[in-house]
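Give me structure tokens for this 171-residue protein.
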Amino acid sequence: MRTGDESALEAVMKKYKSLAEYIAGKMLNDPSDREETVMDTFYKVWAARDRIDLSRMSLKSYVSMTASSCTVDKLRKITSGQPVDPIEDDLELDLDLEDEAARSVNLGIIKKCVSEMPQPDREIFIGRYYYELDVKEIARRTGVKEKKVWNILARRKNELRKALIKGGIIL
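Here you go.
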């Protein structure tokens, strides 16, 4: 791809299209929105081909992060710029992110909890909920076994849920 060979892009699309579709499908219901998001993903991958640093992450991870970013961008566009926070569903809480005061309080609690997490828990949590990496990739990057990654995520989500409820979460 670095040399501008479009057949390389086709090979990348063939290999990772289902991954991009899966990521888009987690948040977008409309098939045309999902398709547009997948195409945006590979357009951005192609546009950034000279800047992708494969020593920092795999191409699969780069495509995954780009697909997540494109999906959130599309969702923001669809919802008229309302903030999107995919962790809300995983916490099984109905956070009010539309009311500015509630949003500020809830996001402040989330930021505080995440910033107070020790390493590698913080890195694992951010990798999962900000970059939407799969557990296998997080385990590989951090050198922590997959089962322990799952345990850390469960424990930290539970702590965050409790902090949100204790901190006057607005439901």
